[in-house]
Design goal:
Elements lengths: L1 H20 L12 E8 L8 H18 L7 E8 L4 H14 L3 E5 L6 H10 L4 E3 L14 E3 L4 H14 L4 E7 L2 H4 L2 H10 L3 E8 L7 H10 L3 E5 L2 H15 L5 E3 L6 H11 L1 H7 E6 L5 H12 L15 H20 L4 H4 L14 E3 L2 H9 L4 E3 L18 E6 L5 E7 L1 H8 L2
Parallel strand pairs: 1-2, 1-3, 3-4, 4-5, 6-7, 6-8, 8-9, 9-10, 11-12
Antiparallel strand pairs: 10-13, 13-14
Helix pairs in contact: 1-3, 1-4, 2-12, 2-13, 3-4, 5-7, 5-16, 8-9, 9-10, 10-11, 13-15
């Protein structure tokens, strides 16, 4: 991975001039055009499930916006760019995207797999990006065009530790993939767990795409943990947990990150260990975004009406990341209307203006509602399907977490929560 990151850094240096000199394709106060929202995430590779999750948020938002008349006389469309979850491939893809895509309106992504390598390129091109990376390196970013609607991985790691301690699990096994996205959760999980009196008795880094993890399983069994913390690819976790089950005859409690609350993860792992066996021991944490209220209803209605653009749309109805991708497109569109410009470099500064709660601002729950209020001369505060949007000075908006479990049919049920106030002491706030 260090070699990959080093190669990506070389590519960044070599391609910076090209990005600076080429036309970024960003829209410049056009009318009657089609503006492009780019889904910049893995669609293949170990994190291939990230891409469809993102599309499921982009397409419903574009559908709603276009149905309301578009943005200042322009329609929107979604376009996907596969980063493959690899920094070097992502740099090449980002450079090509920025140089050749007409009328770029904004970017959804990048993910943790490629953000360090590509976010500076997107920022340099003056294109707003609503990233889904959880890397702590962006907690206090200086990138002007970077925005994040979901908690950083350091916060997510603390949330896992808090809930495990609440359940009395004080001997843990950390089983994480060796990819950047999975590993970014680990430092704060281990630090927070120790602060709360827990001991991480074994830590295993799973090399992805292996056919067996028998050696790692034996070390875990020998350490006698009470709980397994995990994020790995669906295939890796399925192989590891099935071998654990074969060796011991059962499974111990599992607490996973939001990546384990994906349909592909459930299908792979439950197929390997059995649906009933998995649902008895599994819990997952993800940003708290309750599937209720006016904003969620607007999102879900558009999602379920997406047709062939989003296969099996109902599987994303309760996904908080899908909700925030939907919110991101709406926020960019409302910022463009508020600033009376489709130029990303211009409307980027209006993003806080259409989300910030303040006296006299009308709370709006959809693009159509926000558009009507702005046309009426009102200030607005967009309340997202994913919850309240409150950006700090570093363009981060975070909140609490929900703890969910699977039903045997793969649907999710709410089990508990971890609040921002419970996490704050571990952050030193």
């Amino acid at each position: 991975m260090r070699r990959l990151l080093g190669a990506a850094a070389v590519l960044v240096l070599g391609l910076t001039t090209l990005v600076a000199c080429a036309s970024s394709g960003a829209s410049k106060n056009v009318t009657g055009k089609t503006l492009t929202v780019v889904n910049f995430n893995p669609f293949t590779g170990p994190d291939a499930n990230f891409g469809p999750e993102m599309v499921a948020g982009c397409e419903p938002a574009v559908r709603d916006i276009n149905a309301a008349g578009g943005v200042l006389g322009n329609k929107l469309r979604c376009q996907s760019v596969d980063t493959r979850g690899d920094p070097a491939d992502a740099v090449t893809g980002a450079t090509r995207m920025l140089a050749t895509t007409s009328n770029i309106f904004g970017v959804l992504g990048p993910s943790a797999d490629e953000a360090n390598a590509t976010a500076p390129l997107i920022d340099q091109s003056k294109v707003p990006m609503f990233a889904d990376t959880g890397q702590a390196s962006f907690d206090k970013t200086t990138l002007k065009y970077f925005w994040r609607l979901t908690p950083a991985d350091d916060v997510k790691g603390y949330a896992m530790a808090v809930y495990a301690a609440k359940r009395g699990y004080l001997r843990g096994a950390a089983i994480f993939g060796n990819d950047v996205s999975s590993q970014s959760n680990l430092p704060s999980l281990k630090a927070g767990y120790q602060q709360l009196g827990g001991t991480m008795v074994v830590t295993e880094q799973l090399a992805l795409n292996q056919t067996s993890y028998r050696t790692e399983v034996q070390r875990v069994v020998a350490a006698h943990p009470q709980v397994i913390f995990t994020e790995a690819s669906p295939q890796a976790d399925a192989t590891f947990l099935s071998e654990l089950q074969q060796l011991t005859g059962n499974l111990i409690p599992i607490i996973g990150t939001e990546a384990t609350l994906q349909p592909q993860w459930f299908t792979s792992v439950s197929g390997a260990v059995g649906k009933q066996n998995l649902t008895k021991v599994y819990l997952g944490e993800q940003p708290y975004a309750p599937p209720s209220g006016q904003s969620w209803t607007a999102f879900n209605t558009a999602l379920l009406a997406s047709g062939s653009a989003v296969p099996k749309p109902s599987q994303w109805s309760t996904d908080p990341y899908t909700m925030t991708y939907y919110d991101a497109v709406n926020i960019m569109a409302l910022a463009a209307v508020s600033s009376n410009s489709t130029d990303p470099a211009t409307f980027n500064t209006a993003v806080p203006d259409v989300t910030r709660a303040r006296p006299g601002a009308k709370i709006v729950h959809s693009y159509a509602e926000g558009l009507a209020a702005l046309k009426g001369g009102q200030k607005i505060s967009y309340l997202g399907a994913g919850g309240v949007v409150a950006f700090d000075q570093w363009h981060n908006s975070t909140g609490g977490f929900e703890i969910a479990a699977y039903n045997p049919d793969g649907s999710l049920k709410l089990i508990g929560s971890v609040t921002a106030d419970q996490i704050a002491p571990l952050l030193g706030k």
